[in-house]
Amino acid sequence: MRHIISILMENEPGALSRVVGLFSQRNFNIETLNVAPTEDPSLSRLTVTTVGDDRVIEQITKHLNKLIDVVKLVDLTEGNHIERELMLVKVKALGAARDEVKRTVDIFRAQVVDVTPSLYTVQITGDAAKLDAFLQAMAPVGILEVARTGVSGIARGDKVLSL
Amino acid sequence: MELLSGADMIARFLQDEGVEYIYGYPGGAALHIYDALFRQDKVKHILVRHEQAATHAADGYARASGKPGCVLVTSGPGATNAVTGIATAYMDSIPMVVLCGQVMSHLIGDDAFQETDIVGVTRPIVKHSFSIRHPSEIPEVLKKAFYLAATGRPGPVVVDIPKDMTAPTERYEYVYPKKVKMRSYNPVTRGHTGQIKKAVDMMLKAKRPVFYTGGGVVLDKASEGLTDLVKQLGFPITTTLMGIGSYPQSDRQCLGWLGMHGSYESNMAMHHADLIIAIGARFDDRVTNNTSKFCPTAKIVHVDVDPSSISKTVRADVPIVGPASSVINEMISLVQGREVAHPEALTDWWQKIDDWRAEREGKLYEPSSPGEALKPQEVIEALCRVTRGEAYVTTDVGQHQMFAAQYYKFDKPNRLITSGGLGTMGFGFPAAMGIKQNFPDDDVVCVTGEGSFQMMMQELSTCKQYGVGVKIVNLNNASLGMVRQWQDLNYKSRHAHSYMESLPDFHMLIEAYGFTAITVTTLEELEPALERAFADKHELVFLDVKVDPFEHVYPMQVPLGAMRDMLLSKTERT
């Protein structure tokens, strides 16, 4: 099963490589990864999506917790949560397709953020399935480039991941 | 306020931290530190002949003394040579701090002379690592390094020190940090009481219980408590290779050690148990054999200070995260005044165990007949008699390691010093060196083979320099015995590169360093030679013992089988 693990870790050089290295060293799987500093500049928040049965996920969280740079972590998929990914896509927008692309962008509540005579750059946020669906819809028109951030997430309600 | 250079801070910190020995080898990037060490005399630096030996010596020192070992090497090849020793310490959870010189900060990343990203190279084999970014951080970083190495589940910590951080011209305030606090590191200090109660209830109700304890008990100095607990309950106990001696092997309740080459009764008891109480052991593949066939009827209580060790390979029914000593003490107080629920079942269980014991009694190996080559097992038994079972025994890796563990009887923890996890050939001799310096009045013997010894034999020179009187028992079968054994069993005796052509004349080799060597070929020569070797505690003596090259180590678990599936000799199996 797919899990989203969010990690608060020391914003130190080398911390990221320890997390990433752990996954390859222990034969765990990384589907997406995103990382940035938090409101407290001494901390980074890293979100990783991974796939594994309960035993594997238990080992992943235990080993992550063992890393000295990891301060706290949560498996967001254990409870209600919000997950989002941001994607920027360059699609061909020529002739009759130009209007069709714009309509699809509107249907997906995406935005065109840059325009040239021959293409649109579209920004879209949502969960991974929505982004996949948008790419599928755009495929016949012609996708030129895709940049996805990977999943970021946060628990619903009062639950807070902080120190 | 005292102003010190980075190099002087390091030297001063080591003094303030109480470091007695630092094992190392100088080189460009470490020279400021070496100069600072030269200008003090509290911390003794031991100059090894290869950086791998520095890590093994510090490791041996740490295992025998319970204090973190300390290593100093230079950048690049100095640091990469230390890698095998760091990995050895990591696999066996040995506290160690390795200080590595590094090229100057402004050169990092430029492929400078003797530059290696040692923090990157060692990342998967350290508990943690640091890079010094400003000389003023040195005291705090070193304090953290020693704290991390020695607490929780211990392990090696690497500190990377660019040369400009130790420049004599730059001075900063030095204060020895007495305490250290890290928001992201809080090792557990005790187990969950509810879980411990649950475990004790299961223990008292068990009909076929067995304790299975490992290096965690030794590392947490919990042997006495463990012995009390096991005696109070009257249960059988088997230990891992790393746990040997944490319960006296001469006691009736001790079944020896378990796993691939463990005793018949240990493996049989594990397989048939209804409750396994694992403490400070990690269910590794050399113990469990095939995990899907592992102990089919047993419930498992697993105590470990490292949560990631629990349910890693074998699911625990009662997981307890906590240090061995405090959990054991809590168990003792819960057991006191209570009786086991099924004393008659326990009597039957012991009867079964005694039957297993009797089955193998006197059949473990066939002693040599007069005129035949010595059996390696005989050599270890004689060694045990001559040293009254009290020596520190280090080993390298292979058949001799297993024979030493099987036939020397250890009643104390920390006496068998062996690379159990990584299985590092070349470990034994430098480790013995590190131990002997810490315990100069004790017998320290390295049981080795001619293959392993040649991996680190340059350290004879170090022993000469510092007058280190270790004894070396070389079980010389002129072949890589364990490799050969596997080739006999799995490759129709095609001995691909498992024999050693062109062995040196060990006698002449040892004498070249000014030491005594004795060659032993017959049983009559054996004990007198051992007596002679151990006569003077401060003299290095090398015994080159020619042993039977055809001997195999048994029992040996059958690959992919259960605990009880064993070869018992070349012709028998369970």
What does this molecule look like?
- The complex is a heterodimer of chains A (163) and B (574).
- In chain A, the strands form two sheets. In chain A, strands 5, 6, 7, 8 and 9 form a five-stranded antiparallel beta sheet that branches. A four-stranded antiparallel beta sheet of chain A has the order 2-3-1-4, with helices on one face.
- With 163 residues, chain A is an alpha+beta fold.
- The model of chain A has no long low-confidence stretch (mean pLDDT 96).
- Chain A has helices spanning 15-25, 54-66, 96-107, 128-138; strands spanning 2-10, 32-37, 43-51, 70-75, 81-92, 111-115, 119-126, 143-148, 152-155.
- In chain A, strand 6 (111-115) and strand 7 (119-126) form a beta hairpin.
- Helix content of chain A is 29%, strand content 40%.
- Chain A has two domains: 2-79, ACT domain (Alpha-Beta Plaits); 82-152, 2-Layer Sandwich (Alpha-Beta Plaits).
- Chain B has 574 residues and is α/β, with parallel strands linked by helices.
- Chain B folds into three domains: 3-173, 3-Layer(aba) Sandwich (Rossmann fold), CATH 3.40.50.970; 193-360, TPP-binding domain (Rossmann fold), CATH 3.40.50.1220; 376-553, Rossmann fold, CATH 3.40.50.
- In chain B, 37% of the residues lie in helices and 17% in strands.
- Chain B contains 22 helices and 22 strands.
- In chain B, strands 3-2-4-5-7-6 form a six-stranded parallel beta sheet, sandwiched between helices.
- In chain B, a hairpin with an 8-residue loop joins strand 21 and strand 22.
- The A-B interface holds A 9-10, 13-14, 17-18, 21, 25, 55, 58-59, 62-63, 65-66, 68-71, 163 and B 119-120, 123-124, 127-129, 131, 148, 182-185, 306-308, 311-312, 315.
- Chain A: InterPro entries: Acetalactate_synth_ssu, Acetolactate_synth/TF_NikR_C, Acetolactate_synth_ssu_C, ACT-like_dom_sf, ACT_dom, AHAS_ACT, AHAS_small-like_ACT.
- Chain A: Residues 4-78 form the ACT domain.
- Chain A: It comes from Vreelandella subterranea.
- Chain A: Pathway: Amino-acid biosynthesis; L-valine biosynthesis; L-valine from pyruvate: step 1/4; Amino-acid biosynthesis; L-isoleucine biosynthesis; L-isoleucine from 2-oxobutanoate: step 1/4.
- Chain A: This is Acetolactate synthase small subunit.
